[in-house]
Amino acid sequence: MSNKIYPIGIQNFEKIRKGGYFYIDKTALIYKMVKTGSYYFLSRPRRFGKSLLISTLEAYFQGKRELFEGLAMEKLEKDWIKYPILHLDLNTQKYDTPESLEEKLSTTLDEWEDIYGIRSVKKSLALRFESIIQRAYDQTGQLVVILVDEYDKPMLQAIGNEALQKSFRETLKAFYGALKSKDGCIQIGVLTGVTKFGKVSVFSDLNNLDDISMWNEYIELCGISEREIHENLEAELYEFADARGITYDKLCAELKECYDGYHFTHNSIGMYNPFSLLNAFKRKEFGSYWFETGTPTYLVKLLKKHHYNLERMAHEETDAQVLNSIDSESTNPIPVIYQSGYLTIKGYDERFGIYSLGFPNREVEEGFMKFLLPFYAHVDKVESPFEIQKFVRGVESGDYDSFFHRLQSFFADTTYELIRDQEVHYQNVLFILSKLMGFYVKAEYNTSHGRIDMVLQTNKFIYIMEFKLEGTAEEALKQINEKQYALPFEADGRKIFKIGVNFSAKTRNIEKWIVES
Question: How far apart are CA 501 and CA 514, in angstroms?
Fold first, then answer.
């Protein structure tokens, strides 16, 4: 039996190394990074190892050679110089007022001034930061290391509040500007976050910053690759397979389907979500571990604010400029959703420089749809999983009436504000439903020019549905027959239900359905 201790939720490198926790060696990449550049930015989804990366850099620049015994860094580094380090972690506070950010920055500056002394307490936050950098350099004789974890947390929490976001942007822009003004005193600066706000935002003065988020050579810096799994967890893979009662190959395929699939540039290997993967190994169970740690509601606010058609999410296309940068006032929610880890790169058209996006894996796709359902349909979060179960059982038993009665309840009591674009609202609810049902029965959902088709297939039945907004159920059924939607299934042997459905704009719900079998 494996004796590995998995560092679930532990983001401190020293604690991992001294506590004997399992660690996948990233130090060769870290060595390359610190020796070939001075200012870096890396964006990765939450729970992807960014804080551990910052902690590892901190231990390295503190000269703690003993923590790197047996790792690549031990052989690569010869000098082990101790540098003064200014480590700012913005992950530990709720930012809901301009003062909340200023208080966090001021408290951190107070701590640094306790170490390096104070010249003037009347200076701005940015000037205090500059003074601290200068004094740290003067007093130690060594260049200063600047490490910023979750630089964008205040900006993300202010999405939807333009005035607050403007305040945060101006504060952070001036604060991070100290890195450029004190370049001669700085050994290296590393900033991490979930998102990258645009060039007109907090990074506009940091034009010397290398954004390595889409650099292929640093893909393995955070997360876990397939190579790393097999090099470090091979015995554990067999144990996991035995515990599940499946073959080694089947287990590897399931792990890949559930947790792999993050592509941070077009020609890179896929990366596994480390939080979910290590939880799965520890418990020897598949679960939605990443989602259980919380999905930010700002994503839903963005989608609903811009009446985004969720069906686009499965085959969204965009370019590198959009993926790499978020304009806080943009009407496009895709960059935030991509950088937050809910979409990933699936393909690339080199001729036009266009990326195609999609869900990285089953955990994200299923988890995101489950998360969205209560925000779009009349169902609470507790009942949501049970509702999908009822839908699936209804169609598996041939009870299409219960399916539509339940669907009517999904649309009931929907406020007018939520459905100013009724057609998109109907499509979004049906898309979420078909996606969630698709994990249990075969479901297909397509839209084009306002037409909505849904096909559900079970062991015994095939349902072909046509939905009309302000048409009639009869017209919908007629379209199924005239366009011969059932033709591909006629030799199948399963019972076919052709169902025409009408939505009423007046009642904002399903008005009628008729069935032909």
Answer: 7
Helix/strand/coil (H, E, C) string of 218-250? HHHHCCEEHHHHHHHCHHHHHHHHHHHCCCHHH
- Helix ranges restricted to H, 141-245: 153-157, 162-176, 178-181, 226-232, 234-244
CA 37 to chain centre: 27
Average pLDDT over residues 20-35: 98
433 — pLDDT class (breaks 50, 70, 90): very high
Q: What type of residue is 406?
A: R
Residue 513 CB-density burial (10 A; 0-12 exposed, 13-18 middle, 19+ buried): buried
Distance separating alpha carbons of residues 339 and 151, to the nearest angstrom: 14
pLDDT at res. 330: 57
Q: What is the dihedral of CA 457, 382, 305, 152, to 10 degrees?
A: -110
C-alpha distances out from residue 99 to 92, 105, 107, 171, Å:
15, 10, 12, 10
Give per-residue pLDDT as tens, 89-139: 998 888 999 999 999 999 999 999 999 998 666 789 999 999 999 999 999
Q: Distance from CA of residue 181 to its chain's centroid? A: 33
Helix and strand numbers (H, E) in the chain are 22, 15
One-character DSSP codes across 1-66: -------TT---HHHHHHTT------HHHHHHHHHH-SEEEEE--TTSSHHHHHHHHHHHHTT-GG
Segment holding 408, helix H or strand E: helix 400-411
C-alpha separations of 297 from 44, 270, 284, 411 in Å: 18, 27, 30, 21
Q: Yes or no: say if 101 and 171 are a contact pair by the CB < 8 Å rule.
A: yes
* Cα radius of gyration rounded to whole Å, the chain: 26
Angle (deg, nearest 10), helices 362-376 and 422-437: 140
Contacts of 262 (CB under 8 A, 6+ apart): 45, 223, 270, 271, 272, 273, 341, 344, 360, 361
Contact by Cβ (8 Å): 394, 387: no
- Rounded Cα–Cα distance for residues 150 and 496 (Å): 53
